[in-house]
Amino acid sequence: LSPTGHLVVAVCLGVIGTLGFITNFVVLVLFCRYRALRTPMNLLLVSISVSDLLVSVLGTPFSFAASTQGRWLIGRAGCVWYGFINSCLGIVSLISLAVLSYERYCTMLEPTTADGRDFRPALGGICFSWIYSVAWTVPPLLGWSKYGPEGPGTTCSVDWKTQTPNNISYIISLFTFCLVLPFGVIVYSYGKLLHAIRQVRRVSSVVTRHREQHVLVMV
């Protein structure tokens, strides 16, 4: 990138990082302050806010500083740290969204058994999201692929370029289990929810029409 391009990226990262920190911090404050917001579903949203807030604190400042200078500033170890943290927290958010959609789908299937005060399913989903994400982002630290510079050299991520069986197998696995699979769960769960809502509306419309016809007959 040209110096102007790096400057534009730096400004965008600064805005995104600042807004991300403020909005997610506000979410956490509201959740802690207002008891009515402390529901199992909202707890999953809090987990997402925590991961996004950590990105704003532990990741964005480094890429922002690098973009202002046009080069990576904290060495190889810092690059590995940045790549691991951002990959892990990004996957946490996506898996948490998949868990949230599945929880809502389960609530739709069995609304009578859903307990708004039972935090165990939500806590289980949160633990699963974080453990699953760590399990998929630690391997590059142990030799299955690696973390390195990407793009204009001001950020770091999984090595997408090296064409070796070791690296390609990790990329395919990561893409399948950390993108396609959670995205599929989200699409399936919300697709079922939308289908159920349409059915309810259709039934409600039929019932309303019958009532109107009955009233007309009586009149």
UniProtKB/TrEMBL annotation:
GO biological process: visual perception
Keywords assigned by UniProt, alphabetized: Disulfide bond, G-protein coupled receptor, Glycoprotein, Membrane, Receptor, Transducer, Transmembrane, Transmembrane helix
The keyword Glycoprotein is assigned to this record: yes
Residues of the G-protein coupled receptors family 1 profile domain: 23-219
Annotated compartments: Membrane
Entry GO MF terms: G protein-coupled receptor activity
Coiled-coil features, chain-numbered ranges: none
Classification via SUPFAM superfamilies: Family A G protein-coupled receptor-like
Any single Gene Ontology cellular-component annotation: membrane
Top-level taxon in the UniProt lineage: Eukaryota
Pfam families in UniProt: 7tm_1
Transmembrane segments annotated in the record for this chain: 6-31, 43-68, 80-102, 122-142, 168-191
Membrane topology: Multi-pass membrane protein
Family (UniProt): Belongs to the G-protein coupled receptor 1 family.
Protein's UniProt name: Teleost multiple tissue opsin b
Originating species: Nothobranchius korthausae
Lineage: Eukaryota, Metazoa, Chordata, Craniata, Vertebrata
